[in-house]
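FIELD: query
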Amino acid sequence: MIKSKLKNIGMSIFAVMTKLANEKNAINLSQGFPDFDISPKLIEFVNHFMKDGKNQYAPMPGVPELRKMVSSKIEKLYNCKYDFESDITITVGATQALYTAISVLINPGDEAIIFEPAYDSYAPSVIVNGGKPIYISLQLPDFSIPWSEVNSAITSKTKLIIINSPHNPTGAVISQDDINELERIVRDRNIFIISDEVYEHIVFDGNKHISISESEILRNKSFVISSFGKTFHTTGWKIGYCAAQKILTEEFRKLHQFIVFAVNTPIQYAYAEFLKDEKNYLDVSSFYQKKRDFFLELIKDSKFKPLHSKGTYFQLLDYSQISDKDDFNFAFELIENIKVAVIPLSPFYSRQNDNKLVRICFAKKDEVLYEASQRMKKL
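FIELD: result
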């Protein structure tokens, strides 16, 4: 008999809704992946490095060329220096980086503050390491952080605060005031930060992404995690990275070497080459803002009420003028009746929470967004 370490954890809502979408032949606006082609130049680079013999194990921390480019990108964007040798580790996507960083920090009995709605890998990674998630709900309607509640939740067992900005699933972003509050909380305490910044290059309306790495106080206590998949529309390649000060990275790599050891070699070289042209990541925000604005214009005459998305490629929709059903049943109804798959928001919470909100992914071809919007306007 196996004693489950995650006995109360079932199948991810993303897998559930995508499976249903496929079974019902529905338009899939649920799971967060683009449905359009990636850059032909990036594919050309991968092909080149495969033919060039870059097909064996990469160095455990990642190929130096890619770590150098990541270090350079961070310095240019956030005015802080991570040494490519000692501070940057290439990972199998952001989820592996998150799991590894959480495993470094959390020991049995430790507490981790998680803001809800939350990406669904955070809490299980805390629990499997013997920790206790402490859930704090972000404040509607803008999903801001209630810092007074954070202060009240801090105990001698608090070891970790997980930040996610731009935020999945809400599209909220942190402000400089949030950075100031976080600095005050952790300055004289043995509390660390994991900053999930996988959507760092998808921020809208002229706003600038604020990275935890910009704060010297927080940088010294943080694992900053990002994803090439989200930036370059290559989610299936599963490559991300973790930036952290040497003393933290040393512990990170101790686990990383036994979880995956090394990451896909030719793709690492391809990303390194692709990053040399800054437009390849600096233009991503404007690309997705056009997608967001296009979709919002399409549904403006529907009964869905959009909440403001400041970043990511997700949009929350209030359906309270359409149905009084809970978000699970409403999402299932959409698949059955109009063949459009969305994600209910309640699975992003630890307890029953029904704000009559669903999440859609607008990282789709324009014709797909158009067809989905026409079906949604019928409700």
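FIELD: remark
The chain has 15 helices and 13 strands.
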